[in-house]
User: Fold these one by one.
Assistant:
Number 1:
Amino acid sequence: MVVLFSDDEFRELVDKVPKDARITIISDSCHSGGLIDEAKEQIGESTKKKKKPKKEAKGSSRLGIKDFVLETVEQEDEETNIKEYIELENGDKIHVGNKSLPLQTLIDILKLNTGNDDIALGKIRPTLFNVFGEDASSKVKKFMKVLLTKLQEGENDPVGLMGMIGKLTQEFIEHKLNGNEENVGRKQEVYEGANKGSIADNGILISGCQTDQTSADASPVGQPELAYGAFTNAVQIILEESNGKVTYKELVMKARKLLKKQGFTQRPGLYCSDGYVNAPFIC
């Protein structure tokens, strides 16, 4: 079974951690830097880079985001098609690939499971809402809540939101949302997620790479069934060599060094409050 988690789900998960407890998340996935919103970046370059301004067309606050998604997907498609082989110190050669799910693949999966061929970039969230109903993520529910409110109020649609719901009617949406009320503080949350203004003190994220990087898989040449995550493998090696006695900072720094030595370009990151940087690693 494939389970998809967004940064919003991670944020909500961390917010539920009891005051005197902590949660450690190790994410060996592409673009995993900064998955916990507002967690302080202790090791990494994801939040320190200058962001390029997004181009937006008049009357559309979504165009910049859409362009970014398409650009990212195209880049991932190119990277996915690149096959690399790395030779380890013992002479063994391993095949290296990237964990990525091109957007078109997701759309094709949705078409196959729904029998609906009319699914484009702008209709992904409504389709997910239709398929999963009460099990849909909070972000999808908030998105549909805004659409329903606009329909009920008869508000003009300057950015074309109504065109995104296709054949879904008001009654159908109301039925799906029944008992699943999602509060929306501001319109921006629908596209970018909620920002509660609190520091993720109880959440610790160790990412396999930076926000603009992919996280590699590796496998012995000719044996793809033995594939493993390069970062996950590095963590296991470090824990075994240190007998489990290592701090969060030491673990990430050693993983960076080991991956670089093995020929991987991805750079793991650490996101947490200052008090956990030199704390013993627990997972």
Number 2:
Amino acid sequence: MAKIRLKFGENEVEVESRDFYIDNETIGQVISDLTSRLGEGKARIISDEVISLEPPREITQAYQANLDYLKILNDAEVHEPEFSSPTPIGQDEVPGKIELLERDLFFAKPRTVSETVEYLREYGWIASPLDVSKALSRMAFHKELEKNSQENKTYYFKEPQIIS
């Protein structure tokens, strides 16, 4: 199968031999007719060329530099929930993850255990509700969080610090 590509400015015409019959004798006529229709003397023939799927060197270098920068950060975690499944975390890791939520002011308003588990999942971590409940209770016992019960539900929250 033969291909003829003619490009004129932003316009490009591609003709394949499966569209109609082109033989060695008529190919010159087809090219000249297409060239005259696009603009006399301003069209050029573009040969079939192999397109490289490798990214440009500048992009590769920038990506590598960003990746090197991320490696020097302590405890850097990247999670894109659309593209990867959440990572299970153990009972010993739950308090540290809850502290991350606390830094993001997650406990600025009262939250239940199930809300905390759901929010951890949005961050890319799967935790057992029992482990989260134990960690929140322990934090409330040590006065890191406040605990309140309403309508048979237990809520955990952080009192805003008043600096005088």
Number 3:
Amino acid sequence: MKVYLDVIWALNLLFDAFLLYLTAIILKRQVKIWRLALGGAIGSLLIILSITPFHAAAGHPVGKLIFSIMMVLAAFGYKGFRFFIKSLMTFYVTTFLLGGTLTGVHYFIQFDMDLASNVAMNHIKGFGDPISWLFVLLGFPLAWHFSKRNIEQFEMTKIQYESLADVEVKFMEMDFSVKGLIDSGNQLYDPISKMPVMILSIANCLDHMPSEIKRIAENPDSVLTGDGNFSPQLENRMRIIPCKVVGQEHQLIIAFQPDNIKIATNESTFIAEKGLVSFTAQELSADGSFQCIIHPKMLAGMAKTEQGVKVS
């Protein structure tokens, strides 16, 4: 039986370094390459120790924990106990995530192992198993890429979730209760009154909207071109707001002054005393997670905060 110890050691060094690199990505930390290489080299020493008289200690959970601690210290250093524990726990989560992915894929695509052992793996066991190492060699980069992409998606979902709020808008005897996205890039203002503008999608209730609102939401240019008559009550609330979009230097949208805007976040409830609402017939979110875009100024100086009362 041949044991390609040098190949196994090199693969372990590479994999450990990649695990530390993915840990650094999750923690949003800048780590030098030599530190990652040093951490990977420390982790790969377990392979060397496995063929020495110290193999029992190297395979013991305490021994593995000690090596994990040394790997994390080599890669990220020590800047406090909480800093270190967070690094160590994230490293373990990353390791379990990648290891679980590889294990799941292996059992998902596994075939008759008895037949494979008799035909293709006769007299080949242990460290020198080329089938297992070929699977790891090909599967690890795919699992690493999959894990990295999904972690980024989880972060984006978390950021978006923390930016969502419950919005209630009352406008001409119509009540809207929707989810809103607090968009820090929203710079829509009425140039005259300086009121911030909220974009509200009515795509889900378009058939139940008054014909005037429906027509404006579907075709805002009808107001600008003078097509159609609108009630005096609606015209008194109407504002024409200039805005800029990608590919167009100047564009005009139609906004209205509502009776009330109430925005509830996880911390407080805001009553926007000054604000405008622009209705649109388009979906604002591809997955339907929000139906309006909130101007951040509605939660700042121009808004009155109504502290929620906790009931225990």
